[in-house]
Amino acid sequence: MTIENDVPQELFPTISIEKELQKSYLDYAMSVIVGRALPDVRDGLKPVHRRALFAMRELGVFYNRPYVKSARIVGDVIGKYHPHGDSAAYDTIVRMAQNFAMRYPLVDGQGNFGSLDGDSAAAMRYTEARMTRIDREIVADLEKETVDFVPNYDNSLSEPSVMPSKIPTLLVNGSSGIAVGMATNIPPHNLTEVIDGLIAMIDDPNITVHELMSIITGPDFPTGAQICGRAGIREAYETGRGVITMRALTHVEKSKGGKRESIIVTEIPYQQNKAHLVEKIAELVKDKRIEAISEVRDESDRHGLRIVLELKKDEIADVVINQLYTMTPMQKSFGIIFLAIVNNRPEVLNIKQILEHFILHRKVVIYRRTAFELRKAEEKAHILEGLNIAINNLDEVVKLIRGSKNPQEAKEGLISRFALSDIQAQTILDMRLQRLTGLERDKIASDYQEVLLEIEKLRGILASEILVMDIIKTEFLEIKETYGDERRTEIIDAVDEILPEDLIAPEDMVVTVTHSGYIKRNPVTLYRSQNRGGKGVTGVKNIEEDFVSDLYVASTLDTFLFFTNHGKVFWRKVYQLPLAGRTARGKAIVNLLHLAEGEKVAAILPVSSFEDEGMEKTIMMVTRQGRVKKTSLQEFNRPLKKGKRALTINEGDEIIAANILGGDDTILMVTRKGMSIHFHEGDVRTMGRTAAGVTGMRLDEDDYVVSANVVSTDNSILIITENGYGKRSPISEYRIQKRGGKGIFGIKSSERNGDVIAAKQVDDDEEIILIADSGKMIRMDLSTVRVIGRSTQGVRLINLDDAEKVVSMDSVAKDTSSDDDDEEVDGEE
């Protein structure tokens, strides 16, 4: 009789072996990926590292406690949390103790834990270990319900699913691991730089990867050495994958006689075996592939690494060093893969995303820690309330307790008489007699008030994300202060490295900005040279109510600084400006910059170099409320993509002008009511980028500054009023005063003139354009406006209807072209 005849067929369903293998292998792969090989993006630890640290914490082997045998720690790790081989757990502990493998070791080992020569660690029964000081920041607040705990492998204990780490371990110690179908290889970084990067992200969540690279300059290996080139770092930081070149650090020493030289190797690339390196060099010398070396010695000791390569007489050290880089592990590549577990899924991340995930992790930890502390504080307050009631009714409480037959009856009596909770009544019954003394009674009342203040503070934190981010930032600064150190790995430029600017040919460009805020660039060659009096070519096609207000000639590699009325500065290279047709207006500046609502560009400054050339370059900023600030140009050499603070603006104030100073310039400020002040730039000291500035001019309550010019003595000042009147006066009429005064009249703000709308430094080779609120526009040659004294009333420049007002004035180069359609811009401009 066969089985098929006795057992129903439904008990033996048909299963596709292909599907079963696929499902089982995927389950195995995900177990390896999530549970063994890859680190978590939050605490930067693999499960075995996390379990080892947690087991040491539970054992109490902290950095200030005695060492314990490594075998005891390994036993706890594999017996309680990590049911795998003891050698795997011990190898993990050994690596965490090696200062040449971990940038910031997580285990303090005593005994033989291996060496840079590849020596194995002693057996775990011989070595001892304990946690390092930095580990306390990784396990901090673990007891305050800051992270979820999960059952261990046999459900007998629980372990944290992630550590509430204050240390961005994923970056500062790096990680490497091979999973199924994927691998991670994250280099270590400098803690100080990573913390600075995190703080920069808190201050500006829109910071770009390029801007982060100015803070986190690159990997920082525990063995030091050099990184050659920045292109691989930039690619890895932007995409999550990249390759960098590591080089050994060398220098040359001369012999006592000075006839021979020796190459001294003091640092080697990360993860390279020193003994193998020395053997490789010796083999090359023996095989005569490198003939210039006469002797190879390893003089390394406990003070540091030192490999001596003695050269033969008259050999050139630089040539030999290049040969060593080519033929030995003195130069190696490191393939960066920023792969980590994010929400139980493996993801390749760029450096900004890694920092974002860590900040989010810290926010969750702070919220959970605060909620835990609030609950404990409320429980304590509840108990203290009960004690206060008991103390205030002491005689009655004592009488009630003495009259009760047993503790349960006393508790019920207290609850009924004083409306106490069960825990309050029990606390009163458990209270010792010494707490009835005067001092103890006062202490209870004092403790209660302190707890109430603590509760208020904690509730405020939970209600305010700003306070949470401030706490995170403060903790980061404390970590940096306590554990931060200098970089060990030097980053040098690669000879053959190509940067973005290297692909841009230096070329002179004509950059034009229109009155309504459009910008473009064109090659200078587009504006062909013409004889004097030529008709010229069209630079921008005539568009109603718009015209070219500023024109600059700058190289493609020069920088334009855009200062906004909100006190921010933006940074664009000339080659990043739109290249438009000769007659096109270009692109609106508001579409080039990340401006906030109501924010507009107040000044544009072209800069060819941020370096001082014999004299410090500064920028003077002037605000509507009369404040001025002078800041070194070098402060603006790398603003963020989303803008950087150039001036701290008071409420209701805004920047109206910014100018580059030459070191011996004067500034003329003119107000709405016609007052003016002329002072030397030396009256304003150089201040930091975020300073608010100093008073440049004292204003009446209803007055504000409308213009500020850096002036030269051979020009004149033209002041325009809203009723269409203007006055052009020599600069010499405006005497130089000290800053901070009320100044002198530039023009009378009268019923005839109206208020001042603008003041500008001009000469006869310019024309001005006046625009009225009705849209009326007039363009006039300044040579027709004669220069008159400052004390005069001014002359009419434009005829207005009764309700019309002049709202804007700008100057342009004089138009000497004829009236042909293609002849609007003078050829000599």
Number of domains: 4
Strand proportion: 15-25%
Fill in the CATH topology of the largest domain: Neuraminidase
Tell me, briefly, the overall form. globular
Spatial extent as radius of gyration: 38 Å
Q: Span from first to last CA? A: 109 Å
Question: Could you outline the blueprint of secondary structure elements for this entry?
Answer:
Layout: H1 3-6, H2 17-37, H3 47-59, E1 68-69, H4 70-81, H5 86-97, E2 107-110, E3 128-131, H6 135-138, E4 149-151, E5 158-160, H7 169-172, E6 175-178, E7 183-186, H8 191-203, H9 209-213, E8 226-228, H10 231-239, E9 241-247, E10 249-254, E11 261-267, H11 274-286, E12 293-298, E13 307-311, H12 317-327, E14 331-337, E15 339-342, E16 345-348, H13 351-392, H14 394-402, H15 407-418, H16 422-430, H17 438-463, H18 465-483, E17 490-492, E18 508-514, E19 518-523, E20 548-555, E21 559-564, E22 568-573, E23 587-588, E24 601-607, E25 618-623, E26 627-632, E27 644-645, E28 655-661, E29 666-671, E30 675-680, E31 686-687, E32 694-695, E33 705-711, E34 716-721, E35 725-730, E36 744-745, E37 756-762, E38 766-772, E39 777-781, E40 795-796, E41 806-813
Parallel strand pairs: 8-17, 26-31
Antiparallel strand pairs: 1-3, 2-3, 4-5, 6-7, 8-9, 9-14, 10-11, 11-13, 12-13, 15-16, 18-19, 18-20, 19-23, 21-22, 21-24, 22-27, 25-26, 25-28, 26-32, 29-30, 29-33, 30-36, 34-35, 34-37, 35-40, 38-39, 38-41
InterPro entries: GyrA, GyrA/parC_rep, Gyrase/topoIV_suA_C, Topo_IIA-like_dom_sf, Topo_IIA_A/C_ab, Topo_IIA_A_a_sf, Topo_IIA_dom_A, Type_II_DNA_Topoisomerases
Motif (GyrA-box): 530-536
Enzyme class: isomerase
